[in-house]
Each structure stands twice: as C-alpha cells, then as structure tokens.
Amino acid sequence: MKQRHPRQFLEPLCFLSPALVVLAAVTLYPILYVLWLSLQRWSLIAGGHGFIGLQNYVRLAHDGRFWNALSNTVYFTGVSVALELVLGLAIAVLLHRAFPGKGLMRAVLLIPWAVPTVVSAKMWGWMYNADYGIFNYLLGTQVNWLGSPAWALHAAILMDVWKTVPFVAILLMAGLAGVPPELYQAARVDGASPWMIFRRVTLPQLRPLILVVLIFRTIDAFRVFDAIYVLTGGGPANTTETLSIYAYKILFQTLQFGYGSTLAVVVFFCVGLITLAYLRAMRKAGA
Amino acid sequence: MKRLWFHFQLVVLAFWCLGPFLWQSATSLKPATQLTRLPPILPQPPTPEHYLTIFRDYPFLHIIINSIVVAAATTLLALAIGALAAFALGPLAMKGRALVLTFVLSVSMFPPIATVSPLYLIIQNLGLRDTVAALILTYTTFSLPLAIWVLTHFFRNLPTELYLAARVDGCTAFQAFRRVLLPLSAPGLVATGLVVFIFSWNEFLYALTFTATVSSRTVPVAIALFPGLHEVPWGEIAAASIVVTLPIVVLAFAFQRRIIEGLTAGSVKG
Amino acid sequence: MAAIQFEHVVKRFGETMVLPDLDLTIADREFFTFVGPSGCGKSTILNLIAGLEPLSSGNLRLDGGRVNALSPRDRDVAMVFQNYALYPHLTVYENIAFPLRVRKVDRESIAAGVQEVAKLLGLDAFLHRKPRELSGGQRQRVALGRALIRKPKAFLMDEPLSNLDARLRIEMRAELKRIHAEYRITTVYVTHDQEEAMALSDRIAILYQGQIQQVGTPGEIYHRPGNRFVARFVGSPPMDMLDGSLLKEMPAFGPLFGKLPPDEVEFGARPSDVMVNTRQEGPALEVQVQTIEPVGRDTWVDGVWKGIPVKGCLASGAKISAGDKAFFHVLFDRLHPFEKSSGQRLSL
Q1: Which of A65, A272, C54, C110 would staple A5 via disulfide (CB 3.0–4.6 Å)?
Q2: CATH code of C47's domain
Q3: Cα C205 → chain centroid
C-alpha cells in the first residue's frame, strides 16, 4: 500500500509561499506585463492605447539612437568589467596576507561600494567640473570632461571603476582566503616563481569565483542607470546614453509606454543572454 | 624596504577609496565665495553654513527619515520572508528546490528598467504613487534573492541533526525553526540585514520613478534633484553627500566582517 | 514502554532500495540492536521509527497502533544521535529541558525532571555550561538526559558511542545497561560494533544490505550463526573458513562430514577454538606460520593452510616463531558447517 507523504512538499511550501507570492507579484507579473506593453502603442500623454503587434520592435531595429545606446552600453560594460577584474585581482593579491589594520583596510574598501551611486556621481561630477573641478586644477588642463563627446563616456567608466574595483577586490580576497595554503607550499617546494604560482595555482582555484564575479559585474554594468543619469544625464549628444537611460527617457520623458517597454524588454533579453553565456562557460569550467 | 613599498601601496589604495570623499568634505565646509575658486583647496575658514542650509531651507531631515523607514522596513520584511524561504529550501529540503533557487537567483539579475514601466502603472492604479509603501514592497522583492541565497547557505552549514533532534524532541517544523535554527543563524541574519539595508538606502531608479514629492522621497533622489535656482548649489550638495555618507562609513567600519560575510556567503568555497 | 512492529516495511530512496522487506517485532521493554556494516540500512530503520522518514510501503506499529503517517512529535519516542546533536546555543539545563519546554510543561515540573536526570547521569555540576565546554563523554550524557527526561515509549540510539575513545566507550556501555535496567524503556540500538551489540542487547538483528541475516539473543548468534555472513561478522577475531573439498583429503577429517557432500560444505572455526601447537595431538591442519600477535592473555597465530589464511590460539606453554610449521587443532564439535553456495548453516 503506497503512502504519499505530504511532508516533503506541502509543508516546506507553506514556508516558501510568502517569498514566492511576493516574487511572483512584483517580478513575474510585471515581466509578462512589460512584454504585453511592448506590443502596444501606449502614450500616457495622448491617452488610450492599442495593440500594434511587433511594430515597436521593427521601429527599434531602425532606431539609430537605440543602436547608439547599445554600443555605448557594450563599450561601457566591456571596458569597466575588464579594468575592474584586473585591478581588483591585483589588489586582492596585494592584500592577501596578514597585516595590522587589515580589518580597517577592508572597511575602507567597502566604502566606495556602500555609498549611494548618486552620491558618488555628484562627487565625481564636482571633481570633473570644467570650471571649478579639482581634476582640471591638478592637471593644469581646461578639459570639459563631462561635456566633451570624446571624454564623457570614459569619465563615466572611470567613476564606475573607482566605485567597483575595491568591491571586486574584497570578493576576490575572500576567494583567495579559501585556497588551501598547502598548494602554495607545494608549489614553492617544487621551485615555482611567484608569477608561475599565480598562473598555475591561484588563478585556477579562483576561476569559479572569478566567473561568478564576472557574471554579476557584467550584468550590473550592462543595466547601469544611476551613475550615468546623475553624472551626465546621457549627454553630451547621447555619447553616454546607455540602454537603460534611453529606455527611461522614452518612458518618463516622452511618456511612450509602449515603445519604452520594448526597449526595456530588449535590455532584459540581453541580460538573459549574457547570463546564459556565462552559465555555459561555468559549466564548462566545471564549477 | 619591501615593507615600506607595501605600506606605500596601502596608502595609495586608501587614498583611491577615500580621496573623493575628502575633497567633498572640504567642499562642504567652504564658504560660498570660495566654492568657485581654485586655489584655495582647503576652506579658509571652514564654515557650517551649507550643513545648516540643507536642514533649514530644505526638508532634508524628513527625507532622511523616509530613507530610514524604507530601509528598515525592507530589511525586516526581507529577513522574515527570506528566513522562512531559506528554511524550506535548506533544512526542510523541499522537493524541487534546485529549480526554486534558480528562479530566485534569476530574479536578482532582472534589470530594474525592465520592470519599472509595468510597476509604475500598477502602483499608480493602486493609488500607491508617492508612498513609501510602494518602495518598501519593491525593495523587499528585489532583496529577497540575496536574503534567500545567503540564509540558505547559513542554514545548510548548520548540522542537519539539530533540526531532526528538535523534531524528535517534539517540535513542529515551525517551532524547530524558531527555537533552534533561527538563533543559530544570527550571524547570517545580521550579515544579510546589513547588505539589504545598504541596498535599500542606495536604490535610485525605482525611488526616482515611484516618488513624486518630498513626502516619500528618499535620499538618493533628493541628492540627484537638488534644487538650485540660478546655479548648482555645490556646497549644499557636498554637505548632503557627507551627511549621507557618514552613517555608511560608521556601518562599514563597525560591521565590515559581517557585511563581507553577507556578500561572499555561498559564492566562495567553504 | 511499547512494542515496535515492522510489517513488511519497504523503504526506497528514489531508485535505490534500502530495505526490501523488513518484518519483525521488537518486544516491549526489550534492548534490541541492529548491527551491520556501514550502509546496511540501520540508521534508516531508526529514522522510520522516529518518523523522520516516511515508509515506502508496509506498516509500522508502535504500542499496537499504526503510526505510518504520524509526525515525530506525536510518536513519543526519543532519539540519541551519533553526534549528540546538542543545541549549541542552550545550556546543559536548557538542552535537557527542551523536550518539556516544547510541550509547555510548567517550570517546577521541568526543574524537578532535570534535577532527577542530572543526578542520575552525574551532570549536576555542568547544568549551566554550554555544550562546547564539555568533553565527549559529558556531551553524550547530556544527549541521554534529553532523551530520558520525557520517559518516552522508546529510545532510539544511533551509534551513540562511536565517537568516544575506547575506554570511555566501555564505561558508557555499562551506564547504558544500568539505565535500561532501571527504566526498562524499549530501546532500539544501532551500531556497527558487534562486540558492543553483544554486550548490551537482549536480542540482536544482523543486517546486511537492508536484509536481516539473523535475529536472536547474543548467545544464539555467537554459538549458532545462521549463515556465513553472521559467522564472520560476529566474534573477534573473525572465523576461519575451511573449505570442505580441501579438508576431505585428510583422512582424520573423514567422520566430520557425515552425510554431507564435502565439496559443497565449508566449516567455520573461531580462532579461540583452534589450538595451535608444535606437535600434533589430534585432528589438525599443517600450517605455515606467518605472524604472531601476543595480545595479553592469548597469543594469536596467523598462518597459511593450502593457500587459505587461518588464525588460531597458541596453547599455553607452547613456543613458536614466524616461519615455523605448526599444527592447528580443530575440535569437531566447535565447527560450524555452511553450505558453500548459499552460505546457510547446515545440520550435521
């Protein structure tokens, strides 16, 4: 006589249900909603809305400003993440030893990450100021960092790197702490140089963590909004306009909820693709 | 000699992290006339006028209270709901939990821009525009993945027999959760709470979209939208920035170990 | 106090069959032990009784009533875990009091109960300490106390002594026997240590790969093992197995076989029943000695006979060295006959 035990499923479900309800209501439902919105012509100004199928997507494909935003976003992401990883790793290796005040140092490293992005953006905006900014003063230049198309995106990248490198360093430090010291000892006894030890012992051990950090950082950089919105607002001449900012402007400045949602959906799918790509890479790495 | 080099690198690193704040502090104490002139770098003499202005001529205190309320409520909700969920996914070993965890994790990857338009419409229809409730609900939801992830990890690190012993000793699942597992995962709760609080405090996009007036505005939005009639009030902005940064600095120094625990739990081996 | 009945209980974990068909009854007030090597399913049996795992099919009865779907808290059994599972954040007092607190017993009764148990187990001095401040043996006592305080219908003990060092283990064994004699609570004990099982139990069930090999008193199991597995598992050092087809070549062993076909039989002999000497004094095997193990009162002698390893006990007064040839004397009435193909015991 077969007995079905409810305990393994129903009972845990009770504990899980508040989380599931909240998550479904505030994420799943809106995602479906935004997909639906993207198929509408919906202007909050004109009022009224109508189903227009995939027209928004067609419009998107021909929208030069969209492609500009996409390329800005990709550039921003690529450069930021690469710099953050390399510098973060260097700092993590540097600090991977016991020294007095290590706790203090870690707290200091936390601060750029912990402070609101908006605050950082304002700080850096002030430092980048063409007339009164400290950068121009110290460098003796007169560059309009945030106002020149050539420099603006790089200025934003620098700010993001400043904020995130210490954070990446902290994560990688935790990873380094998890590497069994015997591996290093064995490598030293075998006569390996510090660089070789790094390449052949440290990096392979850190690989799963590096991949995880890369996934999260790439996604975060791709969906960047706060920093650039406050720093440059997307200008000058849309040279710092990323996908999220473009979508936001369409949504809340021109109040086109249909097309804006289309942009948002595209961002969502891009992030999804990035995640899948990384997951495949992680599976290959055996993580 | 090597030691000197190491210490020098530490100083450079510290300067990298704190430099901008030092400059911002200096700016915040500069009399208005000196703001637009360089040199001098340091205020001569330092003046508290900007700090007074932001509290006197601007409801900055009210905004800070909004942020505190939102962050605190989010933290409590996220911990409560998250701990219950982590209990189901950890010690209770619910069937299909790998799937649930994957779903939960994928939520944390949602770009906020993707859900802001539908949420805006929903919140407007519910009449919750310009309320802290809208923010609390949204932030709780997006903090849940982190809370669930970290707390599941902490629960899994507890010996499984403790839960079994509690059941045999006569506890229902919830009593075992409350009397045994929850007290033992206090460090995890603190770590998660800190990270959730910081995330709530710093969030911008949803706050910008869902709040309209000062009545529900939070700190990041206030700083971004600092009003200035003719020119940007750099002094006031600097003062506001420093006021917002100080509690974060205190938190970071007091709890750095716990915060890092919260950030790295589960993603690092062991 | 209650009897425990397994009625054709089957337990599967997904695809893996752990207990194919468990059917036995543990009597009220009995000290019953499941023994077997790791992975044989004994811990699963305890989890089934406690209600921590559901049955795949069959019935489980506690004190006559069917408990298949009953949650652990309603079964009134207490469990002592191998790793003690003491609550680290509670004091010894609170650990022992826990089962009563959960049941909302009043404070005075709790205090009285804890005092009684603490005194019985010698824990008075430690009541306000936390588990991490205690030694292994003390922790074990706290775990016992937590189980005792409820005076449950049954005790379930999952290898409670295996984390203790040898001397402490023997001490705690005596303690467990004493508690059982005093409280007479039905105890289901699980261990892989057959000597421990023999010392403690009223009855033993030998378990191998989820199947019962034999159930009986320690005496029955030791003196009349029902199959080859039980014969080799119980008793230390393990039995020598002597192939019948090799024995039959020796005329002295002819009468041993009786009506049995020699090629299909093998005989088990406990090393303590095999007398080793340098001269032959009866039916014996000619063995090439390899190692000598003096372990105090006895001296074990290991050797090879026709390619088979054999062990015997050195006769008092005899002297022997590695490399010598010796005679391993076998008493016919101390041999255990088994059918080679099935491993079952045969009657001569």
Answers
A1: C54
A2: 3.40.50.300
A3: 8
* H or E segment and range at residue A282: helix A257-285
**Which residues constitute the domain of residue C329?**
237-339
**Does C346 reside within a domain?**
no
Residues C184 and C259 in one domain: no
pTM score above 0.90: no
Scan for tokens 């991490």, then name that residue: C132
- pLDDT (tens, 9 = 90+) of chain B, 270 residues, equals 778 888 898 999 999 899 888 888 888 888 887 777 766 777 778 888 888 888 888 888 888 999 999 999 999 999 999 999 999 888 887 777 888 888 888 888 888 888 888 888 888 888 888 888 889 999 999 899 889 988 888 888 888 889 989 989 988 889 999 999 999 888 889 988 988 998 899 999 999 889 888 888 888 888 888 876 667 788 888 888 888 888 888 888 888 888 887 777 755 543
Q: Which chain A residues have a beta carbon less than 8 Å from that of B89?
A: 12, 16
Could C89 and B183 be called an inter-chain contact, meaning their C-beta atoms sit closer than 8 Å?
yes
Instruction: Give me the domains of chain A, ranges plus CATH numbers.
Output: 66-285 (1.10.3720.10)
CA distance C54 to chain B (A): 14
User: Is C328 in contact with C287 (CB distance < 8 Å)?
Assistant: yes
Tell whether C38 is covered by a domain. yes
Closest-CA distance of chain C to residue A280, Å: 29
Show which of C232, C258, C283 is a domain's final residue.
C232
Give all chains having 3 or more CB-to-CB distances under 8 Å with chain C.
A, B
Question: Chain C partners of B175 at a C-beta cutoff of 8 Å?
Answer: 102
> Would the CB atoms of C88 and B184 count as touching at under 8 Å?
yes
Domains of chain B: 34-264 (1.10.3720.10)
Contacts of C78 in chain B (CB under 8 A): 168-169
The answer to whether the CB atoms of B170 and C81 lie below 8 A apart is: no
Q: In chain C, which residues have their Cβ closer than 8 Å to the Cβ of B168?
A: 50-52, 72-73, 77-79, 156
Q: Which of A207, A217, A176, A215 is nearest to A284 (CA)?
A: A207
Answer yes or no: are the C-beta atoms of C20 and C10 closer than 8 Å.
yes
Q: Report in angstroms the alpha-carbon separations of C312 from A227, C250, C268, C298.
A: 84, 19, 12, 10
Of A2, A3, A8, the CB nearest to C69: A3
Classify residue C87: in a domain, yes or no: yes
Alpha carbon of A6: minimum distance to chain C alpha carbons (Å): 9
ipTM of the complex: 0.82
Tally of domains in chain C: 2
Q: Say whether both C63 and C198 belong to one domain.
A: yes
Identity of the amino acid at C125: A
Q: How far is B208 from chain A (nearest CA, A)?
A: 10
Q: Which long-range contacts (CB under 8 A, 24 or more apart) does A1-5 make?
A: A1/C57, A1/C58, A2/C56, A2/C57, A3/C54, A3/C55, A3/C57, A3/C68, A3/C69, A5/C54, A5/C69
For residues C80 and C204, membership in a common domain is answered with yes
Is residue C180 domain-shared with residue C53, that is, in the same domain? yes
